[in-house]
Amino acid sequence: MRILAATALLLLAGTAANAGTLTLYTSQSAEIAQQTVDAFQAKYPDVKVEWTRNGTSQLMNVLQAEIAAGDIRPDVLLVADTINLGQLKKDGRLLAYPEAKVGAYDKATYDKDMMFFGTKIISTGIAYNTASAKPIDSWNALLDEANRNQIAVPSPLYSGAALNHLHTVIHVPAIGWDFYTGLAKLDIAPEGGNGPALKAVASGIAKYGLIADADVIRAKAAGSPVDLIFPKEGVSFITEPAAILSSAKNPADAKLFIDFLLSKEGQEMVVKQGNMPLDPTLTPPAGFPKLTDIKLLPMDADAAVATDADVRAKFTATFGG
Q1: What is the pLDDT of residues 168-214, one digit of tens each?
Q2: Which of 44, 46, 89, 312 is found 20 to 30 A from 191 (Cα to Cα)?
Q3: Where are the beta strands (DSSP E) in 213-282?
Q4: pLDDT digits (tens, 9 = 90+) for 17-48
Q5: What domain of life is recorded for the organism (predicted)?
């Protein structure tokens, strides 16, 4: 596991009261995580940030091992989805922060009990290789014999976005579990996260992929032969929420980090990183549609937490795991 520490010299005693070390676990890519940490430290140079990145499910496995060992290291989590954070909330592992500066943000983007907070909007659509595949308008259009072994699907057992997508679409009558059964019949083997799936589509190994919007839009802008479809049935979405652990050793700086992510400055960073901001006053990055032009599929986070074990088990059984 890669741990990168953003270095900053602590000032002598008598300076900022919040000076210290903040430990962050994140599922952001290494490049984006470094940008996030650098931007935070530019504003708070007295706070040293040590961070670890991995897929959300892998981070949760590490965290659960730390809980079992009585040695919980992170102060803050910045991960892909609300399901894992909802489970931690249920287990009493998150710290409420009622003073978080959510402003006028949509209440659907943060926990009603103020224990985790969305930082952006990332939808999952259908990516396709523009040289080898044609655009389609429906999730179910993927379930064609011509696409056997040709669809890259991140695993919800690894990727938080994929887990959120699974919990969302299985409750949409036009999609449901039948969609995943159809993928299995085409010998599709979900694995890894969005990065490998995008590489598979961009390289032509796969014709289509279930991939987060920003990854595809950035790749297209860089000249990769990929494009993105927002199917007519709608798209799942995550907010890449952040939360403070109830066991945090540095809750003061953890709150600074949450407020930074929610601030205008933090939201401008989201746009620069190529994602859709929560702040409705900011213009989305080039290549993104207006939110009014796509259909966002809701997800009941509490229900997802309650049924997660059964859903994971059915997913594993569907693909012969």
Answers
A1: 999 999 999 999 999 999 999 999 999 999 999 999 999 999 999 98
A2: 89
A3: 226-229, 236-238, 242-244
A4: 345 899 999 999 899 999 999 999 999 999 99
A5: Bacteria
What DSSP designation does 240 have? Answer: -
Residues with Cβ within 8 Å of 223's Cβ and at least 6 positions away in sequence, in order, are none
According to the CATH classification, is domain 2-120+239-283 in 3.40.50.620? Answer: no
Give, in degrees to the nearest 5, the angle at Cα 212 between 77 and 118: 35
As a residue count, the chain comes to 321
Alpha carbon distance 7, 300 (integer Å) = 40
- CA–CA gap between residue 275 and residue 252 (Å, rounded): 27
- Identical fold at 2-120+239-283 and 122-237+295-318? yes
Domain residue ranges of the chain, discontinuous segments joined by +: 2-120+239-283, 122-237+295-318
Distance linking the first and last C-alpha atoms of the chain: 25
The predicted-structure confidence for 251-295, as pLDDT tens digits, reads as follows 999 999 999 999 999 999 999 998 899 888 898 898 888 777 888
Q: Is the dihedral of CA 182, 185, 187, 190 positive or negative?
A: positive
Beta bridge partners of 20: 47
How high does pLDDT run on average in the chain? 91
| pTM score above 0.90 | no
Query: What angle, 0 to 180 degrees and rounded to 10, lies between the N-to-C axes of helices 264-272 and 251-262?
Result: 60
Q: How far apart are CA 51 and CA 55, in angstroms?
A: 13
Rounded to 10°, the helix 301-318/160-169 angle is 100
Helices (H) and strands (E) in the chain, counts: 10, 11
Place of tokens 């290291």: 73
Q: β-strand 20-26 against 47-53: which pairing, if any? A: parallel
Residue type (1 letter), 146: A
Top CATH class, 122-237+295-318 = alpha beta
Structure tokens, 56: 């959300």
Token couple for 219: 């790749």
